[in-house]
């Protein structure tokens, strides 16, 4: 019995071995067959890219697209991937990313496009066009999103809004700009004026522009008043600018155009003053007794603004009579102080008009011999035969004028204009 069992076991083992060998042979055969198929597949043309993926630069808010051209794609698929986040954006024509600004198009042959509309700054980065071969094939392109410069409207704490200071003080202007790439900031004065940069040692430098976000004006003077332009640019159009208004406060300073003016009676005369002040002053005219003058039949009053801190005051006194002569005062006042200037109006005594008596015409029958004329050595050009009433305008001088700083004026008398300089009128 034991012998029969041993024989049976031996026979069963042989059968099992045979089955194992058969199975092994069958597996190797299948492996060979499929390996041959696989080897045959590897010898077929693989997908290939016909052109590199471009690197793109686009301004924020515009549209952009990547183009991927693949030949011999066969059963493989094209996928779009954002490299930095490893996020799959699309496979074939199916969108995976839940971003309505992304889309994919295919021309039905070998060209695939990834479209990004209304590009945002966070769209920057590397994008990959990938084919799912083994090993995987891919190419990448970079997207740079640029942003035009923009100037912030916020003012820093403890800065003087609007650039206001008293004369001799300091003004600091701050202009912060944003953009990609980071913009450069430059300061210029309005109308091409120079910028005066002063140091603590009162040394000054005159320049056309200043670089940087901050413009510091030390020991400001009234001539520093006006508009200053902050200009930001980063190579992405358009450049932008912002205007800052610098105001310098100071009390009025009044100067008379001429401290002494002479005019004849029954004429009109113009008196003028120049006022420098800021903030805007209150200006007026008075007589020496303190009487304020107003616009009317006797006086014409006007003022003209010459620049941000300078005014010209005009007073016309009409139909002069004796009581109009004397001092006139132009005054100016603002929150920081007041000032005035005095103009003395003096009567101009004109010479009497020369009178001539017509000489009757007497025909001459006999030619008289020419008589030698004698000229006076005093007063060049004086002809004694013209009579004693002849007035030499080059020698007439206004007397009894005590002020010595009269520069000149125009005098109108009986429809004629007389010009007076250094008390000489003609």
TrEMBL record:
The organism's place on the tree of life at top rank: Eukaryota
Glycoprotein keyword on record: yes
Chain intervals for the UniProt region annotation (Disordered): 352-388
Ranges of Pro residues composition bias in the record: 352-361
Occurrences of domain Ig-like (ranges): 47-144, 149-241, 252-346
Location relative to the cell: Cell membrane
Gene Ontology annotations for the cellular component aspect, listed alphabetically: neuron projection; plasma membrane
Keyword annotations: Cell membrane, Disulfide bond, Glycoprotein, Immunoglobulin domain, Membrane, Repeat, Signal
UniProt keyword annotation of 4Fe-4S present: no
Protein name in UniProt: Ig-like domain-containing protein
Species annotation: Anopheles minimus
């Amino acid at each position: 019995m034991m012998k029969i069992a041993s024989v049976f076991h031996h026979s069963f083992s042989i059968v099992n071995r045979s089955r194992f060998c058969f199975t092994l042979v069958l597996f190797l055969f299948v492996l060979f067959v499929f390996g041959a198929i696989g080897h045959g597949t590897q010898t077929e043309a693989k997908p290939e890219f016909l052109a590199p993926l471009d690197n793109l630069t686009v301004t924020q808010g515009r549209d952009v697209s990547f183009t991927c051209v693949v030949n011999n794609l066969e059963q493989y698929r094209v996928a779009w991937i954002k490299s930095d986040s490893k996020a799959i954006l699309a496979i074939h024509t199916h969108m995976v990313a839940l971003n309505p600004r992304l889309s994919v198009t295919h021309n039905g042959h070998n060209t695939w496009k990834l479209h990004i509309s209304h590009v945002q700054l966070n769209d920057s980065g590397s994008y990959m066009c990938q084919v799912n071969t083994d090993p995987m094939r891919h190419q990448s392109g970079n997207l740079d999103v640029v942003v035009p410069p923009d100037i912030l409207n916020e003012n820093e704490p403890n800065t003087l809004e609007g650039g206001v200071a008293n004369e001799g003080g300091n003004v600091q202007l701050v202009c912060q700009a944003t953009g990609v790439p980071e913009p450069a900031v430059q300061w210029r004065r309005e109308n091409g004026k120079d910028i005066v940069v002063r140091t603590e040692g009162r040394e000054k430098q005159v320049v056309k522009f200043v670089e940087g976000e901050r413009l510091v004006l030390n020991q400001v003077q009234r001539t520093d008043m006006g508009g200053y332009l902050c200009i930001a640019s980063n190579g992405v159009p358009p450049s932008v600018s912002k205007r800052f208004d610098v105001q310098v406060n100071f009390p009025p300073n009044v100067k008379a155009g001429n401290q002494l003016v002479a005019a004849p009676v029954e004429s009109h005369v113009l008196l003028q003053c120049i006022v420098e002040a800021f903030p805007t002053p209150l200006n007026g005219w008075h007589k020496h007794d303190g009487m304020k003058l107003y616009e009317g039949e006797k006086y014409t009053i006007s003022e003209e603004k010459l620049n941000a801190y300078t005014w010209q005051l005009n007073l016309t006194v009409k139909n002069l009579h004796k009581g109009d002569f004397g001092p006139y005062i132009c005054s100016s006042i603002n929150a920081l102080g007041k000032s005035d200037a005095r103009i003395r109006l003096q009567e101009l005594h004109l010479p009497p008009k020369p009178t001539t008596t017509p000489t009757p015409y007497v025909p001459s029958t006999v030619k008289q011999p020419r008589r030698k004329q004698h000229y006076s050595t005093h007063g060049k050009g004086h002809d004694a035969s013209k009579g004693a009433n002849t007035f030499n305008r080059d020698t007439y001088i206004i007397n009894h004028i005590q002020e010595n700083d009269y520069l000149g004026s125009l005098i109108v008398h009986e429809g004629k204009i007389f010009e007076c300089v250094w008390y000489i009128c003609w």
